[in-house]
Amino acid sequence: MENYYEKDAPLYPHYQVMRNSNPVFLNPNGRVWEIYTYKECLEVFTRPDLFSSEVYTALGYPELQTVAMMDPPRHTMLRKLISKAFSLKLVNQQADQIQNMTDRLIDKVISTGEMDIVNDVAFPLPVSVIAEMLGIPVNDHDLFKKWAAACLVVIEKAMGRIKPEQHLLDMVKQMTDYLSAIAIERRASPRADLISALASAIVDDECLTIDEIANTCKVLVNAGHDTTKLLIGNAMNMFLQNPKLVDQVMADSQVFDMAIDEILRYTSPSQFMARVVTTDTELAGQQLKKGDWVKLFLGSANRDPSFFSEPDVFDINRNPNRHLAFGYGIHYCLGAPLGRLEARICLQTMLRRLKNIRFNPDKPKTRLSAPVQFGWQVLPVLFEPAAPIYKD
């Protein structure tokens, strides 16, 4: 298949140059090691003893520290607990709810014949799903969307070692205080939701603190919606540029799932992850010092020709496809099965219900400018309207 998506991926030529010339490169600005190759990224992921995930504490933002950015042994305990809520069996039980939410979102715009895929569907869907799983009241879902958006900006700035604006930090605190209050309430009066499960859980004879519950919920909200939002947008952008691809994936569910993984590899939603060196060590012949930062460029690793055959070719039949879009090792994304399910249901529903879907020539699509992410800020489309199917 041709490289029809390359015009949307201006970062990749830079990655290719770095893989060839400086695969483990020391950026003198704050002693940051930039890792561009698959093998070395994998080595960092598998050595949490040498490469700490607690980057926010190192930056001076402990309020951002969550299970996703935490080291063992506390990470091990929290992950063990949370993983119970994200088992494949429990995730698949969300399918009907995800389908209903998707249909509701489409029904809001279907009579108009146009929509912005990102802001009308791809963003609100996963936020609503995870908020529902947590047990957040429906009336507060819109508030949660605002907080989730603010958290992502704070994370992007922190990852770039830029001080976030105070009003954004205030919104993160509002979210934390809100979740803490619910955790206290659910510890006293549990319900059938994820916050109650976290509040009442005992692991290794210990209960989670209220701060740990609130921070765990934050990472579930942020990680649980951002990658999915970007994946849905990237997939639709890909599908709309190649109608033949739509015919292939809609004819075979197994091919559809393989296409999702290839989209994750080819247009990695998270372009890099960060670590902090815990002790002097060597990587690919380079001497890393304690306290140095490490940036793992996943978008580059997922295009590494030493690991992927013809990596710049989009191939929905690529098998195996061991991309690093969801990380690897002890920090492999817990929400990956949920994200895949949400993306599959959402994409299949749009492709089934929206006829003659195409880019809107009067409203240009706009890519996100943040280097941390690869995806779309707005993705306006036109389509042939059909009758709504969801009824209250």
Detailed description of the structure:
By secondary structure, this protein is of the alpha+beta class. It is 50% helix and 12% strand. It is built from 16 helices and 14 strands. The strands form five sheets. Strands 1-2-10-7-3 form a five-stranded mixed beta sheet, sandwiched between helices. The chain has a three-stranded antiparallel beta sheet with strand order 4-14-11. A two-stranded antiparallel ribbon has the order 5-6. A hairpin with a 2-residue loop joins strand 8 (281-283) and strand 9. Helix 9 packs across helix 12 and helix 13 packs across helix 14. The longest helix is centred in the middle third of the chain and has 32 residues, at 210-241. It is globular. The chain starts with 11 loop residues before the first helix and ends in an 8-residue tail after the last strand. Residues 1-6 have low confidence and may be disordered.
Overall, the morphology is globular
Weakly predicted, low-confidence segments: 1-6
Radius of gyration: 21 Å
Largest sheet descriptor? 5 strands, mixed
Q: Tally the helices: what do you get?
A: 16
- What are the secondary-structure elements, in order, as H or E? HEEHEHHHHEHHHHHEEHHHEEEEHHEEEE
Tally of extended strands? 14
Give the strand line-up of the largest sheet: 1-2-10-7-3
Distance between the termini: 44 Å
Question: Average pLDDT value?
Answer: 88
Report the structural category: alpha+beta
Strand content: 5-15%
Helix content: 40-55%
